């Protein structure tokens, strides 16, 4: 059994996509980040960066005490290695997956995340910031579109954790001010992943956990007002 400490965000969806694809038994522990639940001591014990998702694997390979993992990319890699699924066993195939997983973690996610913040949530309109992150998101979409020109999935011929990492960040493409019609290879891949039964189930699970916007006037301070010395009590 795996406990998934989760909220309905782009990074949270990555992990439910894997668990549903792999058919792993799991239990969701909701962490409502809009109310400060991510600062509770019991959550910080497994996710010291106070970010979801995080997992606790009660049956790790080799037995022994439960293993906790935070950071969505690390979780995907942990689960892929545990199950020996969605990551190739050969060196070259593994490298392809890992470099695109890290590309998403270091590029697509942070840049699209800043896009979301300045376009959707910033209390004042800052044209320079909006243009900067809309353009950078567009550039990254172009990288992915070119990558998918001659292969069905991000890392090659098989569906992997690289696809699971990228897909949730493309879902809000309209909010990111991107037109998928201008990226035909990306659009084809997006529609393919969207129709996978595991993806459908993962997003259906999200609707049972939260049906409202996480970002509200009341939650802005919790989500966007954190410093090292100014942290909500949770």
Automatic annotation (TrEMBL):
- Which GO molecular function annotations are given, in alphabetical order? transferase activity
Alphabetized Pfam families for the sequence: GST_C, GST_N
* Gene3D superfamilies attached to this UniProt entry: 1.20.1050.10, Glutaredoxin
Q: Sorted alphabetically, which InterPro entries does this protein's record hold? A: Glutathione-S-Trfase_C-like (IPR010987), Glutathione-S-Trfase_C_sf (IPR036282), Glutathione_S-Trfase (IPR040079), Glutathione_S-Trfase_N (IPR004045), GST_C (IPR004046), Thioredoxin-like_sf (IPR036249)
Decide whether keyword Transferase is in the record. Answer: yes
Keyword Transferase attributed: yes
Protein family: Belongs to the GST superfamily.
Q: What is this protein called?
A: Glutathione S-transferase
Please tell me the species this chain comes from. Acidisphaera rubrifaciens HS-AP3
